[in-house]
Design a protein that fits this description.
The protein is of the alpha/beta class. The chain is built from eight helices and twelve strands. It has a ten-stranded mixed β-sheet with strand order 6-5-4-7-8-3-9-10-11-12, with helices on both faces.
Length: 269
């Protein structure tokens, strides 16, 4: 791979992927990561954040809209991604919105040690009255500025459906929210991964509008009959890329694309 301009490209550090992206994601842009359940979207996103910290000295912010961060940290240890250590060192901030999304009250949350108490400095849990896009973006930008973050992840967008009051205007509302995310996070200099789900109707995302708003779209697929996983770069601005799917696998070091070699890799699933 030719020399990469780090000011224009944000390397993922995922073996085999940056070669397909001419060095990485376009710097300071938002990328949609889409796939069905079990395709490895969260692992991909965490690997992007973790590699940014340990390989490129680029701190990151994770907004967890669905999964309990404590469970997430436990899951990621299987790949060697020690998120707690990065939190403790002030290189990673995790914003837990998983309980606020379902209306857990302040008194309830205070009794749950994985949320309000025992968190590393910088990381935090949102309360129900803070679960709105303006407040989430305000917190992300504030935390990113505090630690000098260059990368962010939202996991995952369908959880934002809880913010929609008029379900006759779902696509319009989602589009407006994503436009706000794009504008605010680009202005903050963050390269952002937005995770979403692919429904069974063949759409690229949950509502069919997300890929039009973002600067790139990556699709992860799973063929259970063939025991095969693949990645497809559907769209990526400022990048010449193939539209062909490329095989991926998950090892004890995370995702590997196209059979790229890593030291002593062991296939996990």
């Amino acid at each position: 791979m030719k020399m990469v301009d780090i000011n224009k490209k944000c390397p993922t550090g995922i073996p085999g992927l940056d070669e397909l992206l001419e060095g990485g994601f376009p710097r300071g842009r938002s990328i949609l990561l889409s796939g069905t359940c079990g395709t490895g979207k969260t692992t991909f996103a965490i690997q992007f954040l973790y590699n940014g910290i340990v390989q490129y000295d680029e701190p990151g912010v994770l907004v967890s809209l669905e999964q309990d961060p404590k469970e997430l940290k436990q899951d990621m240890i299987n790949f060697g991604f020690d998120l707690k250590r990065q939190e403790d060192e002030g290189k990673l901030v995790i914003i837990d919105a998983s309980l606020a999304r379902v209306g857990i009250t302040k008194s309830d949350a205070a009794s749950i040690p994985t949320t309000i108490t025992g968190q590393p400095e910088g990381s935090m849990s949102l309360l129900p009255d803070e679960f709105n896009m303006e407040r989430i973006l305000e917190i992300v930008i504030s935390k990113a500025k505090r630690i000098g973050a260059k990368r962010a992840v939202f996991d995952s967008l369908p959880a934002l459906d809880f913010l929609i009051r008029d379900h006759n205007e779902v696509k319009y509302t989602i589009r407006q929210m994503l436009l706000a995310v794009n504008y605010r996070l680009k202005a903050a200099g963050l390269t952002t991964l937005l995770i979403t789900e692919i429904p069974g109707d063949g759409s690229l995302s949950a509502h069919g509008v997300e890929s039009y708003v973002t600067d790139g779209t990556i699709i992860l697929t799973l063929n259970e009959a063939l025991d095969n996983r693949a990645i497809k770069i559907r769209k990526m601005r400022q990048t010449k890329h193939s539209l062909k799917p490329v095989t991926i696998e998950f090892t004890d070091q995370g995702m590997v694309v196209g059979g790229a070699e890593t030291e002593a890799k062991k296939k996990l699933f």
